Structure formats: C-alpha cells, structure tokens
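Extended Data, record MarR family transcriptional regulator
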Amino acid sequence: MSVPKSKTPPNPKSRSDRKLADFLCFAIYTCNLAYGRAYKPILEELGLTYPQYIAIVSLWEEGRQTVGSLGEKLFLESNTLTPLLKKLEKMGYLRRERDSEDERQVFVTLTDAGRRLREKGLKMNLVKATGLSPEEFPKMQKAVVTLRDNLLQAARGK
C-alpha cells in the first residue's frame, strides 16, 4: 500500500525542538552580517558605511531623486536616511536641495566627487566570495528578493 504524498514537506522538528540554527530568519540575518564583514575593508578604504555606499549606488543609477523615493528604495526610514545624507553632503559626495515648488520635497543628486567614488567602488565584486556558481548566483538573488517581497506583502496584511 502506498502512502499519499503530502503537498507540504514534513517538519522534522517540533517547534520546541528547533535550535537557533534552524531559523531561516537567523540564517538571513547572519548572512547579512557576513556580507558586511566582506565589504568592510573596501568600504573603509572609501571612507563609507554600507548604507552610505548603497545610497551612492542608487543615486548613480537614477540621478536626481527625492529623499522619500530614495528611502523607499533603500528600505530606510527618514530618521535614518537624513543623517546619512547630511554626512555624505558634508563629505562632498552629494547635494540636497529643496524643491522650489514644494518645499517639503528635498532632492538629492551626486556631485562629481560622488560619481568618482562610486566608480572606485566598482572593484567590489563579492560574487566569487559567495562560492556560488555563475548559474547559482542569479537564482539565489532572485529567491532572496522573492522572500523579501513576500515578507513585505505579509507585513502589509495583503
């Protein structure tokens, strides 16, 4: 007699038996920390933090953006993003300017120094460090993005 296959994989451990290493959220969290450590020497050479670097990359890709749209793209709240942008402005890497028609809007653009800094950062290529093959890397990236998007949708109650 054959046993019908379940549509969901069985959980070999009950909730009370799970260890920290069994939590997907912990694996993702520690992976993020490991990425930060891998980027650290290069970012220190540039004099930037990772959030500062990704802000520069985003501005390099799209040019002039509002602080609000940049925050959405980087998943950063205004109270985190504004000090970050002020510091980058003080360092000479970007300009912030209020919209002449709507003073509530602040636009951010890279300076020439900011664009040059982004170019220096292009040598950051940690694909090899991941140990993933050229075929595996985009699949992993897509899976992580799908996971993130699903979690955000669940958090919004949709």
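Summary. Residues 86 and 96 are 8 Å apart (CA to CA).
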